[in-house]
Amino acid sequence: MQAAVPLPSEPSGQPERPEKSERPGQPGPAERPEPAERRLSERDARILAFEQGWWRHPGAKEEAIRAEFGLSSTRYYQILNRLIDSEAALVTDPMLVRRLRRLREQRRSARVGRRDRDEE
Questions:
Q1: Which sequence spans correspond to the domains of the chain?
Q2: Measured between alpha carbons, how far is residue 89 from residues 2, 40, 82, 100 in Å?
Q3: What is the pTM of this model?
Q4: How much is the average pLDDT of 66-76?
Q5: Which of 15, 52, 104, 120 has its CA 20 to 30 A from that of 67?
């Protein structure tokens, strides 16, 4: 049986030290800026935040999309689908992005299943 490893929030008995850079004058891992492809634009970050909401009435979300972003719901969902396929979105909010991907796949599967039944 292995000994328990303390969680990051648990004190390990040693004082925490900020990460030092490997070379003098070079930024350490915590200080390095993220690559551009791993950062979200302000609009993309707002879209992810917007998707965390829940909508009770049909049409309410479409109205909110138009008011918040000035986009048609069709254009909004095109942008959202591209966004949830990005690495930057996955890094920013992994649970939300995985949920949105799973819901998208369920809708696709349902459409394919309907199409198959219609062809029979």
A1: 40-119
A2: 36, 7, 10, 11
A3: 0.63
A4: 96
A5: 104
